[in-house]
Structures are given as C-alpha cells and as structure tokens.
Design goal:
Blueprint (H helix, E strand, L loop, with lengths): L1 H18 L4 H14 L5 E7 L7 E6 L4 E7 L1
Antiparallel strand pairs: 1-3, 2-3
Length: 74
C-alpha cells in the first residue's frame, strides 16, 4: 500500500505537469492503467472540478487545469 501511495504521488506530480491540457477521460484511463499495472484493486477514480472538496487524493489535473482526477481506495 505504501508503494502504491508513493507511486500515486509521483504520478500526480509528473502527470500534472504535462497532462493539464489533456482530456480528462483520456488521462483517467492512463492513470487507471498504471494503477492496475501495480496490482491495485478496489479503487475509484473520479473527475471533479478543481477546488471541489474531496476525501480522496488528487492524482491528476486535466482540461487546462480546470478539473482534477481524484483517487479513492475502497
């Protein structure tokens, strides 16, 4: 679990820098593939407006930085 959280943190930092202009569904699919490749299961990814209060971890930014992708375990 700790490795997954570190990987998600790095993915978030790297992903946000170059994917901010990317369509959200495309970025969400890429993030899901990377998480699945790490063997994780039982999670959700949700696209929300930037600044929306959330109980998950932000793992990406898309559509010009106006939206974010949130990871939730369980």
């Amino acid at each position: 679990m700790k490795k997954l959280m570190v990987a998600l943190g790095l993915l978030s930092l790297a992903g946000s820098a170059f994917a901010a202009g990317m369509p959200c569904e495309e970025l969400k699919s890429e993030i899901a593939a990377k998480i699945d490749a790490k063997g994780a299961s039982g999670y959700t990814l949700e696209i929300v407006d930037k600044g929306t209060a959330t109980d998950g971890e932000i793992v990406g930014s898309c559509e010009g930085g106006t939206k974010q992708i949130v990871y939730r375990k369980g």
